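Annotated sample (chain length 312).
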Amino acid sequence: MIENKHVSPLKVGILIVVIAYFLFALHSVFTLQWVGEWNRLATTSSLRFDIYIEDVTAFVGMVFRLAGSIIAVAAVLFYLTKNLLPSRQRTFKILRWVLVFEGIYWLGLLTTAIIGVQLTLTASGSASLVSVLNNFVLSDIPVLVESIVVPVALFILASKLNPSKPDNKVIKWSLITGAIYVVVFWLLNATIWIITLQSKGNTYLTSYPANLVSFIVTEIGLLALAIYTIYFALKFTSAATWQELSLKAAGAIITALGTYYLWNFLTWIFFGPPWSVWYAWFLGHNLDLWILSLPLLGLPLLFDDQLQKKFS
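Output written by the structure step:
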């Protein structure tokens, strides 16, 4: 291992992001309000069992995310306090465990997706076609995508982390996985906003400017970011070394995504719009709020001109 005594904004940003990742995971695991909600919410025994299975599998997945976050925090703290750079082999080993545990977390949502599709198909006999399609597009598809596509990408990326092989496969799947994450975040948030408007009406936007801004940024801004991230991934997917990547472009994507989450979080704190499905989702059920810390990682990549030179 190599001595690394220089403290930089990037290192501080990495430390804060992994701590945020850990703290949100810790909070989610030990917030046990979900226990027994199958009795509070269910009206039938079958629905009670469905909610029970969804909650338990999601909780197990969250435990794995917590384990991955502990590994990430411990590794970053160790190398920063010891002023050392980890070896390539050890870095890949740590990242592999974190990625696998994160993938298991997303995989834990698969039961929710399966049960959701089952309920939609069951209701198709009595509900209108428009209602069935609406539920499938806005509820089932987003959960199916996040619980299948995301973990598959993470597991593939983890399998490519081989220190004895060239970096091109790791770079390719890192970019693909990053693009998938941004697309999934757009899909989840955009559909929740549409569901909210279906119940609240358009006055929920016109009467509250903060909601209107959030809606536009979600439906259009986050979509634009997803498209740009896909473009960025396609542009550099054939890169043979990490030095070929544009740190400024990567920093811009990371900063924009983190700022989106930070903005929506602060909107509720400072403006306090009326409660809705949107805020219940974003503040109460959103297990990815740790992303609001990402600007602290993205800004050094975006504005530190010397970093690209050192990286090259």
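Annotation: The radius of gyration is 21 Å.
Annotation: Residues 166-305 form one domain.
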